[in-house]
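We both want to read discrete structure tokens more fluently, so let's practise on a single case. Would you write everything just below, so we can both look at the same thing?
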Amino acid sequence: MRILGYQRADGRMGIRNHVAVIYTVECAKVVAQKIAIQFPGTQVFGRRTGCDWSGPIFDKLVALGCHPNVGAVVVVGLGCEYIEAPKVAAQIAESGKPVEAIVITQAGGTLKSVDYGARVVSNMLEEVDCTPRAPMKESDLVVAVDCAGSDATSGLASNPAVGVAADLLVQAGGTVTEQYFGIPSLVNAQKKGSAIGFENHISLPYILKLSFDTVNTHSNAFLLTLPFRFETT
């Protein structure tokens, strides 16, 4: 199977090539959304609540911007929050991708920020279109699996199908991060009786214990956002 990915400056490979608009505080959310909505496919991430300092949230925003599926980033802040947009942008810039910070109070308000942000995203889209493609192997893929909402057929069809696909990917050398709330005994039983390399199956409960930003930072096949902390638009 031939897969073409996107080669990033930091050496990582992405399977997608998004421009992301990241807001550092809820007060900047509307501006971020109004910028992104003008460009279908642009991703919006941000902090839902609060303007106080939080190291884990700062790191999470940076991890989202550095994600290999993101080719360029606009960081939007209001200007009075403790997680400052320019500082988030500076950390993301270390990955080598194009990034720009917009501070609403410095840009002249909402309308001017949206107008400026739209021009920045437009230029970034042209730039990411020139990102070199490079061949990827199955072993380069890191796929995040999440249950978005079960119904009566999930356990009969979709969940087993996803499980088989995950096994095939791991057998090929890839990595799967998975949610298995409620079925640890079944998964452990399968591990004991299987030749599959389960060291490449990472279960979501353990991800949460190990690192706040492991899921988004390590998965290059899907952008998986923890719903109780962040949102995707």
